[in-house]
Design a protein that fits this description.
By secondary structure, the chain is an alpha+beta fold. It has two domains: about 45 residues; about 160 residues, Sandwich (protein yfey like fold). Helix content is about 30%, strand content about 35%. It contains five helices and twelve strands. The protein is globular and about 50 Å long.
Length: about 220
């Protein structure tokens, strides 16, 4: 009888030991899963960080996402034939045309990382006084997909923009004390930035390119600002 009881105790202790190992293993696996989940969550929420890192070293081999001041935003090229735009981007979602001038707008199908609907605006007018050919005179984007070689994009801070483009100066402002809308222009390089200031933050909401040496507001300023 004592022998049987002893064997039962040994079996019980072994079972408890196995349960402890199993529980410890389960805790370890669960902890690892939670850490991995948190890591993935950080990676997901921190997509801006990863994106910012990528933007700091943009893929300049992809011309379709590159902003070149005074030249192009992606496939939208200054001084290109206006008739080529429909072949490149399809029929515009909105247009405002008068007196040989046109402001054409294409909206993105997907929203950006801040859940905003983005747009590409292109201003066209006659190339010269002969009034025979219409060309692209200004391009504007509200999408952070496009980026300059020095890492500036929509949602960049005004401070970063000033560091990257030291020649910019303010050319327009409206709004109120709570929310201000400002335009900064780098005339020499042919690039301008629409800035929104609110809650002590100044963030780029749109980037425009125009001919070098011409002021952005001498060409056309899109509405709404």
């Amino acid at each position: 009888m004592k022998k049987v009881s002893y064997i039962a105790i040994v079996i019980l202790l072994a079972a408890c030991n196995n349960n402890n190992k199993l529980n410890q293993s389960t805790i370890t696996d669960t902890t690892t899963a939670v850490l991995n989940k948190d890591s993935n969550s950080i990676g997901s929420k921190g997509e801006t960080n990863n994106t910012d890192s990528a933007r700091s070293h943009p893929d300049i081999s992809n011309p379709n996402k590159l902003i070149i001041p005074g030249e192009r935003i992606g496939r939208a090229v200054l001084n290109s034939d206006a008739d080529s735009l429909a072949r490149l981007f399809g029929k515009p979602d909105m247009s405002d045309a008068a007196m040989g001038k046109a402001w054409l707008t294409w909206y993105s199908k997907n929203r950006d990382e801040h859940n905003n609907k983005t747009r590409l605006d292109i201003f066209t007018t006659y190339k010269d006084t002969s009034m025979r050919e219409k060309t692209v005179q200004q391009v504007r984007t509200t999408s952070s997909y496009f980026i300059t070689k020095n890492g500036i994009h929509v949602y960049s801070s005004l401070e970063d923009i000033k560091s990257a483009f030291s020649k910019i100066h303010q050319v327009q402002q409206n709004g109120n004390d709570t929310r201000k809308f400002m335009m900064y222009d780098d005339v020499d390089n042919g690039i301008a930035f629409q800035i929104v200031t609110a809650n002590n933050q100044s963030i780029c909401k749109a980037i425009l390119i125009h001919s070098k040496g011409k002021k952005v507001n001498d060409i056309y300023i899109p509405s709404p600002f």
